Amino acid sequence: MALLTNRLTEYCRKQWEESALPELIQYIRIPNKSPMFDPDWEQHGHMEQVVQQFARWCRSRNIPGLQLEIARLPGRTPLIFMDIPGQSPHTVLLYGHLDKQPEMTGWREGFGPWQPVLDGDRLYGRGGADDGYATFASLISLLALKDQDIPHARCVVIIEACEESGSPDLPFYIEALADRIGTPELVICLDSGCGNYDQLWCTTSLRGLIGGELSIEILEEGVHSGDASGIVPSSFRILRQLLNRIDDCDSGTVGAGEFNAAIPAKRIAQARAAAAVLGDTVYTKFPFINNARPLGDDPAELILNRTWRPALAITGADGLPTIANAGNVLRAKTSVKISLRLPPTMDAQSALQKLKSLLVDQPPYGAKVKFIPDWAAHGWHAPDTAPWLEQAIDEASLHHFGRHAMYMGEGGSIPFMAMLGERFPGAQFLITGVLGPQSNAHGPNEFLHLPSARKLTGCVAEVIAQHFQHVRQDT
């Protein structure tokens, strides 16, 4: 039976409006922060509340043969595992997560992280786009196929609860569930971004991430700045010196060769193609203040900066009093949280050791410099897309968005992808998502663009249907 696109579109629209949207509104209200940001997550019970909510909704869909388990390993976050039989023993693996980033300041008046607000086509609140919607999109896509009796392969759906902490629990679940997962031929991840809301975007790479706490101590206690400045070096200036070992403060370029990698020619070509579509929206999508500007004005180079080149950020600090309480004191210590994005092909553990050596060796002025690593996530570089999948993706984009699909790397990290790429080297990947312009995952005013979520759901359904046709022809 041929898949009827109009019927598929209408089915997805109705399911999103009548079923998924009310659940997402309820989900946004729950502050189920990832364990890195809520060490007492188990006692607080927010994570369990969401797990139970999502599991209850999934079971209520009455998918024939659905096996759903809330998998639990001692001392680890729970994981929702679903096994959905199909008309082929081949396996499609769909992935999402349900844990959230912390609140962040700067939300608009009347908006907040745990306060769902539906404003036109946008659902505001923490976690809707990153990545609570994925559970609903995954199951609605399969239900849409069943609505038309369109066959599909066996599908495994994994929804984890610690992705925003670097997925530390996931490898243990993948190992524990290995026999039940099997060997997927196609992996669909819905936790990525999109360059715009006008077409389907496929992620070709993800950067790695390393980080930790860097502390510089020069005095046993703070002293009067008038007495000591000019004699005692400032711990903040020592921090500046150490950071200069990593990146150039004028250009932002990470010059250390240890953190750079060659960019494949195909990815450069795709970046240029994406830049031709996006133009200056590559940088105008960010909330610059008046007269502020990006690091450069070449969209293709900016895309490569955020997808293949290393970049340093300071995401937190201790030892700095508020301005209201800042006396004339030369402080004894400064501590900052370092986040260093890595090229997709770089080994994160090796890079982390290099970073530590770069920061702590030969400390200026004999200061006590300490670096405590807390993050090392490998990047991911997609294998070449098979012709059948490339065609299926493009046709799905044309059917639901009216424009051809685009390919581009993403600057963020999804540790699960590197893990799966290593474990299943023969798998094909569709990594996509709804984190587009101004959606602002991790920051204030995060929103889910609902039309894109509905259209993406239809695209996923079509790709799964085409996968079945492909494996049937091969057998």
Features:
15 helices; 475 residues; 18 strands; four-stranded antiparallel sheet; six-stranded mixed sheet; alpha+beta
The residue-averaged pLDDT reads 96
Structural class: alpha+beta
Shape, per Cα inertia axes: globular
Percent of residues in beta strands: 15-25%
Strand order of the largest sheet: 1-2-6-3-7-17
- Between the first and last Cα atoms, what is the distance in angstroms? 19 Å
Number of strands: 18
How many H/I helical runs? 15
C-alpha Rg (nearest Å): 24 Å
Helix content: 25-40%
Largest sheet composition: 6 strands, mixed
**Low-pLDDT runs:** none
Q: Can you walk me through this structure?
A:
The protein has helices at residues 5-28, 41-44, 46-60, 128-147, 170-176, 178-181, 225-228, 235-244, 265-278, 281-284, 299-307, 348-360, 387-400, 415-423, 450-474; strands at 67-71, 79-84, 91-97, 117-119, 122-124, 154-160, 186-189, 201-206, 208-217, 223-224, 311-318, 329-330, 333-342, 368-377, 380-381, 406-410, 428-431, 447-449. It has 475 residues and is α+β, with helices and mostly antiparallel strands. The strands form five sheets. A six-stranded mixed β-sheet has the order 1-2-6-3-7-17, covered by helices on one side. The chain is globular and about 85 Å long. The mean pLDDT is 96.
Please give the structural blueprint.
Layout lengths: L4 H24 L12 H4 L1 H15 L6 E5 L7 E6 L6 E7 L19 E3 L2 E3 L3 H20 L6 E7 L9 H7 L1 H4 L4 E4 L11 E6 L1 E10 L5 E2 H4 L6 H10 L20 H14 L2 H4 L14 H9 L3 E8 L10 E2 L2 E10 L5 H13 L7 E10 L2 E2 L5 H14 L5 E5 L4 H9 L4 E4 L15 E3 H25 L1
Parallel strand pairs: 3-6, 3-7, 7-17, 8-16
Antiparallel strand pairs: 1-2, 2-6, 4-5, 5-18, 8-15, 9-13, 9-14, 10-12, 11-13
Helix pairs in contact: 1-4, 1-15, 4-15, 9-11, 13-15
